[in-house]
Protein 1
Amino acid sequence: MYLVNHFLDISIFGIDIPDELAASRTNAATGSGSIGAQVAICVGLYGVYPNVVLLDYFDKGSPGWSEAQNTMNGV
């Protein structure tokens, strides 16, 4: 099973916290910084799709995370 952690953090006073304001971009299926872009990096490096994506704020943005997950799993 291949797993990818797809978190976008911001640093506040040296402490990394999840960037809730960028969640809709981060959780998208395509585009810069998206789950789809991260998956493409994984496939390029390892030659396989991850099975699972961990992310923050799954309820933010479009249903991009589920679209990306379905694509990765051939659904």
Protein 2
Amino acid sequence: MSEATYSEKLARYHDRFDMKKFPESLRRQTSILDSLGCLLAGSRLEAAAGYGLAVATSGANSISSLVGSDRRVSFPDAVQAMSVASHCGEMDDIHGGAGTCIAP
């Protein structure tokens, strides 16, 4: 019998991986860092046009900072722009053929 391929070894490791073995506080911190990473990555993508729109419409009510930018915009614009950017930067485990996320 031949030795398992790297992909097979990785699949076995992933199959045995259980996030519930880690403390709740660590899982929460990991989730926050993941979200911030997605926001920063997405804020640099062309698809995150909300950043450009929010900056273009900044005015007297510009009290909120955009993460990854030195500009201030209105709170609703900041929420919209950063939500779009976060989603653009997200790297979900999508199955291209099915167009769905892989179940945990």
